[in-house]
Amino acid sequence: MKPTRIKNISKITREPLSANEIDDLVPLPPPYDRVEDQPGWKQLTGEQREAYACDLDGVVALSLPKPKNAEEEKQVVDSFVSGLRKLLSKENNWTFLQPLTLTLDYCARCQTCAQSCPVYQESGGNEIYRPTYRSEIFRRLVKKYTKRGGALLAKLKREDIDLNWTTISRLYELSYRCTMCRRCAQACPMGLDNGLITHELRKLFSQELGWAPRELHEKGTVQQLTVGSSTGMKPAVVRDNISFMDEDLSEELGIKIETPWDVEGADVLLIHNAGEILAWPENPAAFAIILNAAGVKWTLSSEAPAYDGVNYGLFYDDFQLARIVTRHMEVAKKLGVKKVIMGECGHQHKAMMTIADRILTGNLNIPRESSLTFIEDIVASGRIALDPSRNDFPVTLHDPCNIVRNLGIVEPQRRILRKICPRFREMEPHGVNNYCCGGGGGAAIMSQHNFKDWRVSVSGRMKFRQILEAFSDSPGPEIKKYVCAPCSNCKGQIRDIFEYYGAQEKSGLTYGGLVELIVNAMPEIKTPYIKWDVT
């Protein structure tokens, strides 16, 4: 792989700055080691190359149109500089100004972070994916355009970067080659956060230039705020879907499943990622079975947007995040619930707990708890009967970054699995050192052009190797194996990885949440709850 210098980011070229090559990627173990057996990457068409900015790495995630003329290009550059200055002002960056300035000022350039980044490592060391590559460009631009004498110092120190359309469009795509797992921040001896640089770049593009992925903005936060859910489901539709699910599974399992709605004064308001209702309805149904069996006074809300815990603003725009989380808590306050429980969704945890602490003050500061700790209390209390022999198959656990590394919720889910899954084994490394699924930062729902090929082949590669290694004692398809992933976005990414490589057929792999395993262990459920053909 050719070395790529930082100043080349602004160099106008016919070819990508640093294209991906499958032969450069870290090899997978058999039977996935033959490149010729893999689907391969979609090639961009001539029309796509003509229409969109695609000169970073040969991958297009964002469909950014090229400027029509020099005047339009100048407007982009001016807006970018304006956005840089706002990021560094306390009046305009109320969320992350202090950690941002610390990260900009104190990087020792030791490159320790690079060894922790699964994207950089699995790409075979593609320089543009090094966590400090993106950050160093950003740092130089901040110094040049926001510091007194910055332009002159940049030339004297030979750190000058030409800020043109090519630089900005490449930075835009590059900000979506990081999954914001923040493993690099954990490894940094100075405690600096290159994942935050990614976030702030995305924020600048959204808030100053109006640039954001369609999946996160138009079909994400905007749709959620106007319709009620990023899935497009309106209140009546979500109630119909849950009602159908309750009826269907009640008949199949031989028990009555009933989901309560809009119960005023309930002990618990449960908010799912609404994607679960459409893609994996067995997950919200499992919650209903467990909470009803344990005698919890709980409810779902049918008021928009409180039936969907998704908050894609977390990934790219602080204002959108604040609008959604405020609406969630206004509904909780209206119902008068004692507590809000977050379903199996990692970014919902981070948005509603870590970040929302800066937003939800006064009477909107309603207690919030992870479903992992809440469900563990139920399991540990003995309120539901469990038979671990019903889960006598190999199980491993994926740690969602936003739940485990960010919030430090490491052991509750493990104590449950040790209790109900006799063949549970860990991935290595795991816990707070675990690797991202490769779909973090919103990537799991982005599939435009050839971006899906990139996220399953590059950003998800480390996770796939981890899963295969966890089951290396039974690699073939004859023994069914379960990857427990208590996060909706992670499940979507793992589903795509398994489909891409044919992992169900070749290795007998399936995936699902934590509560499904609990229900599968309940003796009163006559039919096995785990389905082995979900991919």
Question: What structural category characterises the helix and strand content?
Answer: mainly alpha
Shape: globular
Query: What is the averaged pLDDT score?
Result: 95
Task: Provide the β-strand percentage band.
Answer: under 5%
Helix content: 40-55%
Query: Biggest sheet: strands side by side, in what order?
Result: 2-1-3-4
Cα(first) to Cα(last) distance is: 35 Å
Q: Helical stretch count?
A: 24
Count all strands and give the number. 8
Summarize the biggest pleated sheet.
4 strands, parallel
Please give the radius of gyration in angstroms.
23 Å
* Low-confidence segments: none
Topology:
Elements: H1 46-51, H2 70-87, H3 97-105, H4 118-122, H5 131-146, H6 150-156, H7 165-174, H8 183-187, H9 194-209, H10 217-226, H11 235-253, E1 268-271, H12 275-279, H13 282-293, E2 298-299, H14 313-316, H15 318-335, E3 339-342, H16 346-355, E4 368-370, H17 371-381, E5 395-397, H18 401-404, H19 412-420, E6 424-425, H20 451-459, H21 461-470, E7 481-484, H22 488-501, H23 503-507, E8 509-512, H24 514-520
Parallel strand pairs: 1-2, 1-3, 3-4, 5-6, 5-7, 7-8
Helix pairs in contact: 2-9, 5-6, 5-9, 10-15, 13-24, 17-19, 20-22
Walk me through what this model shows.
The protein is mostly helical. It has 24 helices and 8 strands. It has a 4-stranded parallel sheet with strand order 2-1-3-4. A 4-stranded parallel sheet has the order 6-5-7-8, sandwiched between helices. α16 links the parallel β3 (339-342) and β4.
